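Throughout our pipeline, every protein is held as a single compact record rather than as scattered files. Nothing more is needed to write down the fold, since each code stands for a local backbone conformation. The record that follows is passed on verbatim for readers who wish to inspect the format.
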Amino acid sequence: MTSPQTGIFALGTGSHAYLEFDLEPKVDPTEAVQSVAGLREPRTTIGGVNLVAGFRPELWSAIAPDAAPAGISGFNAPMVGPSGATLPATQHDVVIWLTGAGYDVVFDLSRAVAMALAGVAELANEIVGWPYHHDRDLTGFIDGTENPSLVEATTIAIVPPGSPGVGGSILLLQQWEHDAIGWEALPVAAQEGIIGRRKPDSLELDPRPTTSHIARTDQDQFGKIFRRNIAYGNLRSHGTIFVGFSRDQAILARMLESMVGFGGGPVDRLTTVTRAVTGAYYFVPSTDALASRAGPGAGDGGA
């Protein structure tokens, strides 16, 4: 049986790190995948860290065409809507997502990963995330109200049996920086109109504004995804790390297109108070597909 990387579904972790790497010049992609496949999270039950590894879709497809969904591609160009609303493209070659009970163990493994990949891939971007009031984002609203249960999540996030890339998942990773001053200056009713939900309990507005975030990303219309969003930042710069998993890249792409106004619809008003500063797609292969491409001595660097 082909198994997904279990860290995708490891809920309840208090510290997160997203490490994006670019391959060093002249490094063979096969060598890079072998190095990443050789990373291992600590085998402890106390203070352990979950490690999830993903690759630029074109990179993974080139070295494992038999284990990649057909037609997937990176976030290789900005998405610009008819009115000029823009989602930037900051695609990298590798992502390592680490989650743990505390940032000390996450930091230790982050450093070990960077050292293990030295000479193969260079750290290009690092984001540290942390939960905010259990399940809210920094707007104060509950995040992930429509998230499926863990029982349902595997069918939504994981490529099903019989399909190329079985057991893997497509990840959309974006960093959204909030306009905290502008947001806090709005009355709660205006904030609710932008989100499309009531702030205290996340009940959907009826009727919901057509420009609201939930209207522009309606999962009943575009398809279901599994989100692992988390807060990031400091007083000067903070926001939400969008972490969305799907079995089908088209679902994620259609949501983004709707947000910027493709298809004749309005622009998502959430983009007026928060802006995307990064954007990348990664294919997160199954544990079996990844392990089959690990080189000799796999696991020495990250354990």
